[in-house]
Each structure stands twice: as C-alpha cells, then as structure tokens.
Amino acid sequence: MEGQDEVSAREQHFHSQVRESTICFLLFAILYIVSYFIITRYKRKSDEQEDEDAIVNRISLFLSTFTLAVSAGAVLLLPFSIISNEILLSFPQNYYIQWLNGSLIHGLWNLASLFSNLCLFVLMPFAFFFLESEGFAGLKKGIRARILETLVMLILLALLILGIVWVALALIDNDAASMESLYDLWEFYLPYLYSCISLMGCLLLLLCTPVGLSRMFTVMGQLLVKPTILEDLDEQIYIITLEEEALQRRLNGLSSSVEHNITELEQELDNVKTLKIKLERRKKASAWERNLVYPAVMVLLLIETSISVLLVACNILCLLVDETAMPKGTRGPGIGNASLSAFGFVGAALEIILIFYLMVSSVVGFYSLRFFGNFIPKKDDTTMTKIIGNCVSILVLSSALPVMSRTLGLHKLHLSDTSRDSETTKPSANGHQKAL
Q: What value does the mean pLDDT take over residues 400-428?
C-alpha cells in the first residue's frame, strides 16, 4: 500500500507539472503573438531587405518580441494573482478550477523573474550588439562573424560590470565574504544585480507616475472628441480649407530652386491638413460621443487619480505611525487563504484597475519626460535600435511595478506561502520575489 501511495503521489506530481508547463506555454504564446503584432506595427518597413541585414533584423525582432512578451507577463501576473485568489475563495471545491492553485501562481512568478533576468542581461544586449556588429577585420563577413563579435562584446561587458561591482564592494565593504559571494553568480550576483535594477526602476516609476497622472488628461483629450460648446465647426472647416488651398497654390507657384521655402510650406501644409482631419472627425462624431463619452472619461480619470493619491497618502501615514505596516514586517495570507480587500471581489477589482492605471500613467509619464521623448515609437517608422530601447525600458518599468505596488500599499498578496493544494512548493529563484 505504501508503494502504491508513493507511485500515486509521483504520478499526481508529474501530471501537475505537465499541466502547469502547458498553461505557462499557452499563456506565453498568446503574449508573444500579441507582442509580435505590436512591434511589427511600429517597425520600419524599409528594414525588410532580403540579405544578411534582414536576417539580423529578424533575429533582433524575435528577441525584442520575447522581451516585450515577458514585460507584459510581469505586468499581468499581479492582477492575475489577485483574481486567482478571489476565485479560489469563491469556489474552493470547484472541479473546473483545480488547476488554478498556489503552485501555478508561484511557478509563473519564478518564470517571470527568470525570463526578466535572461532578457535584461543576455537577450537585449545580444540583440543590440548583434544589430550593430559587422564582424572583426580580417575575418570572412557573414552571420558567424557577427555572432562572434557579439559574443566577444558580451563577455567584455560582463567582465566590465563584474569589475565595477568588485571595485564598489572594495570601497564600501572590504570583506572577504563579500568578494567570495560574487563567485556565486546564480544565487547572489544576478539576483542582487536585478534587485538594483528593480530599485532604479522603482525610482523611475516614482518619477514618471506623477508626470503621467497629470498628462493622462491631456492625452485622453487628444484621443477623444471634445464637446462643441459655442463653436461653429462648419466655419472652422471652411476657413481651414481656404488656408489649405492658399498654401497649395503658393507651393505650386514656387520654383524648385527655392528649397528652403518649399520645405517650410510643405510642413505648414501638413499641419493644416492634420488640423482639418481633426475638425472633420469632431464634426462626424455623434452627439453621444461628444457630450457623454468625453465627460465620463474625464470624470473617471479624476476619480481614479483621487483614489490612487488617497490610498498612497493613507499608506504613507500607516508607515509613519505603525512599524509593522512596513512590507518586510507583514506576513499576509497566501493564495486562496483570505481576501486581499475588506470589500471582497469589488475591492480586488478596484485594486486591479488602479494597478493598470498606474502602469499606463507611468508609461505615459516616461515618454513625456524630455530625456526619453525621442524613444516614442512611430507607426511604420521605428528603427530596430529604438525598438530594443523601448523594450528594455518597458521591461525595467514592469519589473518594478509589483515592488512599487507593494510599497505603496496597493496590494497585500504574499507568495511565500502559496502551497494551498500541494505539500511542496518550488523555492523562489530570486530573493526579491519573497517580498511580493
């Protein structure tokens, strides 16, 4: 009987592992397909030649798509964990949701952490150097020469980073144990380096989110149709049409030798055409879209911003007054043990909406900063180098989102005790995952 029980337990463990691997693969495949369509929408079409550069661009495209899919997975994992917790509480004995357990959620977090490290330290540097490589002088040109140069550059970059960390530890903490810990690359060095990058991502999020919250109203005002109050759109369209015709006649009357004036007139004509398209769109919009959608969206943005600021202010007061409110001092329930909000499923849904809103606001704020303004992708006119930069930036922001959400008190989910249905739980790959 003991042998049969042992075989049954091993078979159950095997089937659970296969099921979790299949679910992870399907979820990542969906994210990869969506990311591929997003990148190809912005990728410059002129880069698609049928030569060696086309192969290099295609490989860099696949690596960038993989990174963007990992970033999307890191953003979606926190809402997915919150929803899973509420579903397990509502239907604890349902046969059709037995696959949704703590072991699966914990495994998804470990995979997201592992792939984030892989993309940040291996795939994206490889894609950038591979895109810029030409092969060493004296060697036969080709893909192999480019790969060789890229690998050499990656090794030199790794040695440079390792040397910088050693010098920093020698200046700060001149201890033999600290130096020896750097030899343990998998258990100490990479998690420590990734935690430092997550810290920089948190600081970047704290800088970008307030800017994004203020810019969201402007961005939504540009995307939606504003109400026409005391405005005559027909008259404005008529005036802009006359201005367009006048500019077109001036442009046709100039000789080709006056290149400076022609460039200025073409730019002005493009601006006039863009303004005319916006006015025509406002005229064609229905009364419901003009008078109901725009005010409703603005009120919704105002409510979400107010709730976000209020929750953050309350959490800051709790951190100042109560020491146990610190993230390191709390031991909240695991997956499926207790609700994360006093309002149950409604409160969890509100937390998910606020998390998505903060992520979108941080991305908007990131692109609104003057230093990162050149990173804004353009439809069918974005180089692969800029795509790689955007993917790395979004990966850093997405990896810091769970840490910032936990610090600001937007969720109280703990993954340290996720073995609700299983006896054993996989250990965390990185130390920073235990704080989530």
A: 55
Measured CA to CA, the distance from residue 301 to residue 297 in angstroms comes to: 6
The residue behind tokens 């860099």 is 60
Kindly tell me the sign of the dihedral angle through the C-alpha atoms of 383, 387, 388, 392: positive
Place of tokens 């993989």: 66
Residue 53 predicted with pLDDT over 60: yes
* H helix intervals, 119-175: 124-132, 143-172
Residues 6+ apart with CB under 8 A from 319: 325, 326
pLDDT (tens digit, 9 = 90+) per residue, 17-27?
888 888 889 99
Torsion angle (degrees, nearest 10) of CA 310, 313, 318, 323: 140
Nearest to 409 by CA among 283, 307, 315, 318: 315
Per-residue pLDDT tens over the stretch 132-185: 888 777 777 778 888 888 899 889 988 887 777 777 766 766 666 665 666 666
**What span, in angstroms and rounded, lies between the C-alpha atoms of 432 and 436?**
7
Cα–Cα distance measured from residue 410 to residue 354, given in angstroms and rounded to the nearest whole number: 8
Strand partners, 43: 382
C-alpha pair distances (Å), 232 with each of 238, 280, 294, 313: 10, 12, 19, 44
Q: How far apart are CA 123 and CA 59, in angstroms?
A: 10
Residue 418 has a pLDDT of 39
Residue 206 tokens read as 């704290």
The stretch 343-358 carries a mean pLDDT of 80
The closest alpha carbon to 109, from 337, 418, 421, 423, belongs to 418
CA dihedral (371, 390, 382, 281) positive or negative = negative
From CA 145, how far away is CA 136, in angstroms rounded? 7
Give CA–CA dist 29/33, Å, rounded: 6
What burial class does residue 191 get, using C-beta atoms within 10 Å of its C-beta: 0-12 exposed, 13-18 middle, 19+ buried?
buried
Q: Which of 52-56, 141-145, 355-359, 411-415 has the lowest mean pLDDT?
A: 411-415
Cα-atom radius of gyration of the chain, to the nearest Å? 27
331 DSSP 8-state letter: -
Residue 372 backbone dihedrals phi, psi, to 5 degrees: -105, 10
CB atoms inside a 10 Å sphere around CB 65: 22
Q: What is the pTM of this model?
A: 0.77
**What whole-number distance in Å separates Cα of residue 426 and Cα of residue 113?**
14
CB 178 within 8 A of CB 332: no
**Rounded to 5 degrees, what are φ and ψ at 429?**
-75, -35
